[in-house]
Prior knowledge:
Blueprint: H1 4-33, E1 38-41, H2 46-62, E2 66-72, H3 78-91, E3 94-99, H4 102-105, H5 115-133, E4 138-140, H6 154-161, H7 166-169, H8 174-183, H9 209-223, E5 230-235, E6 238-243, H10 248-253, H11 255-264, E7 269-272, H12 284-291
Parallel strand pairs: 1-2, 1-4, 2-3, 6-7
Antiparallel strand pairs: 5-6
Helix pairs in contact: 1-2, 2-8, 5-6
Amino acid sequence: MRTKEASRKERNTKEASTYKEKNIFLQNLMEKYTKENVVVAFSGGVDSSLLLKAACLSAVKNGKKVYAVTMHTTLHTMNEIESSRKTAEEIGTEHLIIKVDELREAGIENNPVERCYLCKKYLFQKILDKAESLGIKTVLDGTNEDDLHLFRPGLKALRELGIKSPLAESDFTKSDVRKLAEEYELSVSKKPSTPCLATRFPYGSRLTYEEMQKVEKGENFLKNLGLYNVRLRIHGDIARIETDKEDIEKIVKYREKTISYLKKLGYRYITIDLEGFRSGSMDYFLENKREE
C-alpha cells in the first residue's frame, strides 16, 4: 500500500518534470522568436521581466537585439515607470518609453466594460508602430497560462494584432513564472501584480486623472503599512480596502491613521473588505450578469 509520503514525492517529481519540460519548451520558443530582432512589451512586472530576460538570453546566442518598450500611460503609477527602468537596466537591454494619453485617445473615459480590449488595442498598436519604425516584425508580451482562464478582454486585441505570448504558449502559470524569475535572480520575482488604476472603479463610472492620483496616493500609503497585495476600490465617496486576509489586522492596528489619511484624500466612508484581496473583484458583477 502506497504511503502519503510516497504519493507526495511522486506528485512533486511529476510537477518538477512538467516545470522542466515547460522551461525547455520556452527556451526553444525563444530561440525561434529571436532569430530576428524583437520587441518585448515591458511593464516591469514579473511576467514581462521574465520574458525580457529569456528573450535577451536567446537573442545573445543568435546575435540579435531585444528592445524593451514600456508605455507611460495615465492608468499606471509613476512608481511602475521607475521600476521598469531599473529592471530593464538590471537585465541589460535597450529600454524605450512611449508616453500616451489612452484615457482620452482610446475612448475609455467612461470605463466601459470593453475598456481592457480598447486599451490593449490602442497601446499595442502603438508598440507595433514603434517596432515597425525599428524594422522589427515580432512583438512579444507577458501573458501567462493563468491569464487565459480569467476575464481578460484585452487578449482578443492581442490576437487581432498578431502579438505573441511565449509564456502562455509554454503553459507557464504565474507560479512557474515566479519560480523561473527567482532562478534568474530577477529582483521582481516576488513583486505583486499591479493592474491599471481603472480596475479600482466600477464599470460605467467616469475616470479622471485626479481620481486615479488619489487612488495611487492611497495605495502607496497602505503599502507603507506593510501590506503586500492591496487595492483601494472606489465606489463614489466610499473607499473599500482589499488586502490579503492575514494583513487585515494591520489595517485595524493603524485604523485611526488610515482613516485620517484617506479622508484627507476626499473619501467620506472608509471600509475594509472582509473577503480580502480578490484580483479583478470589479468583474464579479459581469459574471453574475452572464448567469442571470
